[in-house]
Design goal:
mainly alpha; about 140 residues; Helicase, Ruva Protein, domain 3
């Protein structure tokens, strides 16, 4: 395996790991992984060729790799579960439960214009409150399963 293949693999694996953690609904999106991984690798190579150091090149590559993925519906849902339902849903099961519940609360997320900085916006508190309410209703109707 040459250096280029290792580099491509590293960016793709880095993205895949990130998706497993924060965007499990995108783990199977091989087009996203391949496109972003290849673009990030190319940006890294170009940055090095243009005189940037390793850290600068990596930062430029990461901008491409993770663009639009900094805000995570999954992570937000896990946070709501941990903070608002600790006696109902065990913390160790929150991540798996969030995957199950995400389709149930998708309508709440669709009300907001989500972007990389959304977690720092005033609307985030509204989203958090709505998610708490939607999960409360869902749990009352369905119970913890």
């Amino acid at each position: 395996m040459n250096n280029r293949q290792k580099e491509l693999s590293w960016f793709k694996l880095s993205l895949l790991h990130f998706l497993y953690e924060s965007h499990p609904e995108l783990v199977e999106d091989t087009n996203l992984i391949n496109t972003r991984g290849d673009s990030a690798s190319e940006a890294y190579r170009e940055a090095i060729a243009n005189g940037h150091n390793h850290q600068e090149a990596e930062e430029l590559a990461h901008e491409i790799l993770y663009k639009g993925l900094h805000f995570s519906r999954h992570d937000t849902l896990v946070t709501v579960i941990w903070n608002e339902f600790p006696g109902v849903i065990p913390m160790g099961r929150a991540t798996g439960y969030a995957v199950k519940l995400l389709p149930e609360v998708e309508g709440v997320f669709l009300k907001y214009k989500l972007n990389d900085g959304f977690a720092f916006s005033p609307e985030f508190n509204d989203l958090y409150t709505e998610l708490t309410g939607a999960l409360t209703i869902w749990l009352e109707e369905n119970g913890f399963q």
